[in-house]
Each structure stands twice: as structure tokens, then as C-alpha cells.
Description:
Residues 19-208 form the HpcH/HpaI aldolase/citrate lyase domain. By secondary structure, the protein is an alpha/beta fold.
Amino acid sequence: MPNKVKDAWAQGRAVVNGWLAIPNGYSAEVMAQAGFDSLTVDMQHGVQDYLSAVSCFQGMQPHGVTPMVRVPWNEPGIIGKVLDAGAMGVICPMVNTAEQAQQLVSSCRYPPEGTRSFGPIRAGIYGEAGSYFETANRDIAVIPMIETKQALDNLEAILDVPGIDGIYVGPSDLGLSLGMAPKLDRDEPEIMKIYERLLNECGKRNIAVGLHNATGAYAKKMIGMGFKLTTILNDSGLMLQGAKTQIAAARG
Length: 252
């Protein structure tokens, strides 16, 4: 059960990630054919629940993209369920301390590395164990979000937690935590300095750095800077942008 995202990171390559806010398997199926390397079901701020996440996984499965989830919180129950459903990566919001990072890793790993309960109802062979247990701990990507001043204050301790594969930056919450307005595609010097610090510290530990972006152009710039996971907006935002562009052309 190889994880193409982790394989790309091991080879030093960046991946382009899509974001699924719409709770629908058909829209996930469409996004899966757009050329993304991975698709992340957003259960924190998207209009997604567990059943819609499963539907999205079903829609993307035939098309070879890596399925991931942003869970709503650092809570073992929902983390275990999305992994059992087939998620190959877990992005977890608001991880601010080493202890919270350790809890996230533990929830994603089977014993002896963690405390995840065994029952991969869909990730395995639909209720049968198969060989899933043998590779899950290696293949699942554990990705805490670094998006607060507290997390920055504890950065080195968080990154030193064994089992972290990558981190993911939420620019809006990071800005809010530092007294700025929430937005993507930031260019403030103090934010760029933070990005450089994250890349430097993660580079020392062979940890990938991800970032949420508003545009492909900014994502390309961030890949050039060293980010290894770049998300472009989300499905609903891209749909709205596309519709507005075509309406403007029709009326122009």
C-alpha cells in the first residue's frame, strides 16, 4: 500500500494537492482527474463529515491520487475512523506542543509505535485484514499543522517528535495568531522569515513542509522556495473562480 506522496518526498519531489470542501463523491471524482497528486478531504472547515469523506475516497480511488484528510481536531476517534476508511495521510489542525504532536502520531500508528485500534474496514480489504497491518505504520503520512505563535515557540520540540512525516502551514490562522488579517499567499517579510525558518528546521530533520495557497502561481513560487506539499485553494473556490471568469467573458 505505497503512499505516492511519501514516495515523492523521499525522492525530493514536491506534490500538488487538491482540497475537497464539497461533500460529494462526484465532485471528488472530477477533481481526481484534474492532475493533482493528492486530494485532501477537509473535515475541519469544509462541508464534510465521515460518510461524505468515504464517498469522496470512493470517487477518487480509480484515478490514482493519494487520499488524505484534514481532521477537525486532534482526537483519536475521528483520526482512527478516517484511516480505517482509507486515508493515506492525516493533516491535523492546531498542534501547538510536543505533547499534542505525540498524541497525533500515537493515534495514527498501530502498537508498538502508537495506540491506533485495528479495524481497517475500507483501508484493508473491506473488513478483512489482508496485509494492511504490515505496512500501515510506514505508509501513513502524519502531518501536524503549524499555524500559531505557540506552535512556533515550540517548533523544535514538535519537530523532534518521532513519527512526524511533514508539517502543514495554515497561513490564515498563522496571521491571526500574529495579529494580522487572515489570508493566503502572504508576502509580509515577517511571514516569509517564518517560512524560511520552517524550511530550515524541517530540512535538518528530513521533514516535508506543506502550505495552503490561493493560486497555482504562488504555489509554484513556494515549491521553488522548498515547500514539498502545495495546496491550491479548494474545490468550491476553484469552481466559483471558473464560473466568474466565464460569466465575465460572456458579458464582456
